[in-house]
Design brief:
By secondary structure, the protein is an all-alpha fold. The protein is 64% helix and 0% strand.
């Protein structure tokens, strides 16, 4: 059997889960920027000299614009790191789901082994134990005869 590559070929493996995580990161980033902007604006209006309202925005952009630009640079790095981390738990679930579908279809399933650093290795062990039982064709335990111990002909009405 060929040895599997320990490196991931694809980071984005489950669009629903990983897409929701990325959406949440972007939402938190936007809410954070809006919150900080409003807090700074209120602080400047309350503590600063009396000025026209829009001049506060120009002044804030001059002082805090580089931080906003830096956050635009960092968000893609945060998303990339999130994809790498989420792949460590989404990837194993995708593999388990694939194995369960094959098992349900009656196909032979090789034991699943997750990569080093992946989460939920115990799920793979439990799946492999279950798959081995199903594939070896274990029959259900024998059921007891409901008429056992009764005289012949009793209960056969």
């Amino acid at each position: 059997m060929p040895k599997k590559n320990p490196f991931r070929k694809q980071l984005f493996v489950d669009s629903r889960v990983q897409g929701a995580l990325i959406g949440r990161v972007i939402l938190y980033w936007v809410v954070c920027l809006i919150t900080i902007t409003l807090m700074l604006l209120c602080w400047r209006v309350v503590t600063g000299p009396a000025r026209l309202f829009w001049t506060h925005f120009n002044d804030m952009w001059f002082h805090f614009g580089p931080a906003v630009i830096a956050s635009f640079v960092l968000v893609p790095l945060v998303i990339l790191d999130l994809l790498k981390l989420s792949n460590r738990f989404v990837g194993p679930l995708v593999r388990l789901r694939r194995g369960m579908r094959a098992l349900a279809a009656g196909e032979h399933v090789e034991p699943i082994k997750f990569r080093e650093g992946d989460f939920w290795h115990d799920f793979a062990e439990e799946f492999n134990a279950l798959a081995a039982k199903v594939q070896e064709g274990t029959s259900p335990p024998p059921q007891s005869d409901p008429y056992e111990g009764q005289p012949v002909g009793a209960g056969a009405e």
